[in-house]
């Protein structure tokens, strides 16, 4: 299953909103880090990534345990309350990632410039870094609440699921006030499981 939480305009309407969204997703993933190893051993995988329209959650693995994995992730998204240390860790990691990105090879920098010219909204590394410096943990928690309130719910459960189990994937997000759009399997297959300590920048 994969979940694409689309929540424009709050997700990417400005450099600040874009960085709030990325910090929110990164902090949720950081809070899930203690569970990641055990989940992998159980044959379960997930990734939580930011896109221009919101957050993409992809989960895969044994059908019997996917509901538990999805519920755990939704709970973390709803109840996120990072400590000062957790916020500083993720904030510093993201700051270093964007600072180093400006030193990328010419091909990567040219690709970034092409995206800037062809996308309706695009924020440069300098704009993102400037916005990032002013963001607090409280800002991220409030932003997460707004994202959950504004996203659209369209559900497609793909795979070896009964009708009853499929309904869980649409009812559980509603119960948590986290509305999720589940997308098709081919896109899920293009996603890979990510380690929580890694940092990838949005394309």
Low-confidence segments, given as residue ranges, are 173-200
**What composes the largest sheet?**
4 strands, antiparallel
Helix content: 55-70%
Task: Please report the total strand number as a whole number.
Answer: 4
N-end to C-end Cα span:
22 Å
Spatial strand order of the main sheet: 2-3-1-4
Gross geometry:
globular
Order of helices and strands: EHHEEHHHHHHEH
Structural class assignment: alpha+beta
Give a quick precis of the structure.
By secondary structure, the chain is α+β, with helices and mostly antiparallel strands.
Q: Can you offer a commentary on this structure?
A:
There is one protein chain. This protein is of the alpha+beta class and 203 residues long. The chain has helices at 15-31, 33-41, 63-79, 84-101, 106-118, 125-132, 137-150, 163-175, 185-189; strands at residues 2-6, 44-51, 54-61, 182-183. Helix 1 crosses helix 4. The longest helix has 18 residues, at 84-101.
